[in-house]
Structures are given as C-alpha cells and as structure tokens.
Amino acid sequence: MKTNQQRWKNRVPKVEIDPSLDNYQNVVLFPEKLAQAITSLKKAKFPKSMQLRQNQD
Length: 57
Fold this sequence. Notes:
Blueprint: H1 4-8, H2 31-43
C-alpha cells in the first residue's frame, strides 16, 4: 500500500512564483476600490463579538 506522500507526489502542481512580482508588494493597484472598501467597512455594523476594540491599552 502506498503512503500519502507517494500518492500525492504526482498530483501536487509545482508552482513557481515570479520574483518580479515583488515590485508590487507595497503598491496600491486600485486606490479607488481601496477607498470604497474602507468607507463601506466604516459604515458596516458588525456584531459585538466581531468588533475591534478601539481603546486597547
């Protein structure tokens, strides 16, 4: 009987991440969408269990 590693060895795709994508690490690509998301999150009403505590010391 094959072990789990032997079974999944040929099924797992090998992914290589392009190093040129590091140029976009701290760049906002869609500032309008980001502003819209921030405003909608400020207006949203979350349950108390999900709210962030503003005054944490």
